[in-house]
Amino acid sequence: NSKGIIFDLDGVIVDTAKFHYLAWRKMANDLGFDITLEQNEQLKGVSRVHSLQQILSWGNKTVSETEFERLMTSKNEDYLSRIAHMDEADLLPGVKKVLDYLTENNIPFALGSASKNARPILKGLGIEERFTAIVDGNDVTKAKPDPEVFLIAAEELGLPPKDCIVFEDSVAGVEAANIAGMLSIGIGDKDILKEADYNFADFTQIDIDFIEKILRK
Ligand code: B16
Ligand code: MG
After folding, report:
1. Which of 30, 78, 109, 162 is the most buried (most CB within 10 A)?
2. What residues are in contact with ligand 1 under a 6 Å CB criterion?
């Protein structure tokens, strides 16, 4: 078999969006405004810098460069403290079954995430060693929908992009996979992720027959 899989992290393997939301919301509240869950939807898959720019514009705030850095650092410290006690039980339902199948059948898989916290999160989940490659926010210069993160992952898997299959929960991520020439599988609302080649609400809806089918394609 000569195909490989690339997983997004947040929203695919683990649900960290709620912790990002709580940490950004606390920061916004300290600055005197609030952010809603609907607004948080728009931050999914978006880099840390762009998230903060977006949030400050919602709050009609302009800050100095130093203050911008300080806000990013303190939000991240708050976020890290909220995810500190993550373990295997935090894997999203159905994910373990797929990872076990891939590991047992020696099918290589990589991470392709915008997060700069990907490694400590994977470590907490107890699955860091199982990835052939981990490409995250520390390795890229261009954010999704730019395909950079997935193209680097393909290279590290030693596979041409057309032989890579991407699992993504964000519109920008599905777009990035499509631009890269990879098979895209949307995890979440199919009306939102309508550009994906296949759609599933979550990993409990994905059976091993489907995985075998796309690996053969
Ligand atoms: P960090 P993904 C993304 O991860 C999140 O969806 C997004 O909400 C977050 O702002 C971004 O990572 C950066 O995360 O602050 O941890 O570097 O979905 O691409 O795995
Ligand atoms: Mg995501």
Report:
1. 109
2. 8-11, 20, 43-48, 51, 76, 113-117, 137, 170
Using alpha carbons, select from 181, 165, 209, 163 the residue that is nearest to residue 1. 163
pTM for the model: 0.93
Question: Which numbered atom of ligand 1 lies nearest the CA of 76?
Answer: 15
Q: Which is the closest atom of ligand 1 to the Cα of 170?
A: 18
Copy the structure tokens of residue 63: 């800050």
E strand residue ranges, the chain: 4-7, 109-112, 133-135, 164-168, 183-187, 198-200
CA of 208 to the centre of ligand 2 (A): 22
Number of H helices, E strands in the chain: 9, 6
ipTM confidence score: 0.93
CA 53 to chain centre: 19
Contact 42, 35 (CB under 8 A): no
Tokens for 148, please give them. 């950079």
Would you please indicate which residues are annotated as catalytic (active-site) residues? 8, 10
